[in-house]
Amino acid sequence: MTTRIVILGGGSAGLHTALALQKKRPPQSASITVIDPSPYMTYQPFLPEVAGGHIDPRDVTVPLRKTLRRSKFIQGAMTGIDTAAKKVTVAHVDGRTSDVAYDHLVVAIGAVTRTFPTPGLAENAVGFKTVEEASYVRNRMLSNIEKAAATDDPAERAKLLTILFVGGGYTGVEALGELNDAANAAVDQYPNLSRHELRFVLVEALDRVAPEVGPELSKWTLGALRARGIDIRLKTTMPSCENGDCVLSDGETVPAGTIVWTAGVKPNPALDGTDLPRGPKGHVNANAKLEVVTEDGKRVDGVWALGDNAQVPDLTAAKQPAYYPPNAQNAVRQAVTVADNILASMAGEPLVEYRHESVGTVASYGIGKGAALIQGVHLKNVLAWLAHRGYHLLAMPTYTRKWRILTGWITNFVSGRDETTLENMNDPRSQFVSLAGGVKK
Asked: Domain FAD/NAD(P)-binding: where (predicted)?
């Protein structure tokens, strides 16, 4: 009898779980089905380089159908889980709804951008969690620079040349650093613009930036960014941003042409339509073996959870209780453990616990700039930047994508950064609709 393994999510956790199962299972013993609304996985650590213009957007994506040749892929969204009946309800992209039965269910639908009901946020800001958002931010910034060069209105010009980030964690600081370099290079193309007219503002509610790299490098990062002319407001929030006018809690209003929201993530809200046990922050509750468990420790038969949507105990931490942070380093390693435990469960063998001590953290703030903490060793600037590129190039799934990224870096090194503005990239039909005399629907 074939064991039905269903994986919800095609991100880092889900993709690597499927790859590990494809590699280790006997083909006749189990079927693998991966369900995700997107046909590709996005390697999110490279999104800042997409915004910076060093990597083509397609090169940070991994096509799921092509990569998971020994699995079935369903493009659709999970809308419900019935753990008693062991079935998943899926809304397909063609509008159909179906139930998918399982013997083992892996919940790896990740996290989404955490937002607040801030006036003007939905109308004027953009997140930074998808390749589409990273591309949008780049195109908007370049387009605004071009518009600034064409206007004689000092206030409008200043607004167009202001880029404001909300959230000074790992993602925000990396994206900010890359965009700062890209903006400086773009402004150099216009004789009537100066780098001094650019304004980058980072708003962070905490008293530090990039806490992931540790206290010492976090403090160094703050100084390094400020030395580049970036205006960093700590212990500050943005209560509203209507019409692009960012009202800050310190009393200042900053008119910004580009507003990027990187103020954290939360578990995928699709989990709300399930009967899975959840932790205090909404994550699926799991034990160290990555089995989904109730608050009193009872297993939910056949259900596993990992990655950003899971609360997994960190048994290696000195202070308990502790949980693993939601990052790609853990997601990829947890995927191997889940695959091993599913196969062990099928064979009636003992399960293993997920135990991983972090090898470190790497962060890039633009070409030749960065911070890294690797096994207790602090690296700064060029060495940290090289460590970042080397680590993530190795971690990028598939040899095809590794090669495309590497050759792209070499091309940029030889020919320089491409600062071409792609007009109407975010609304490509607008000109055609206007010419056709119709109303866009």
From this structure: 4-335
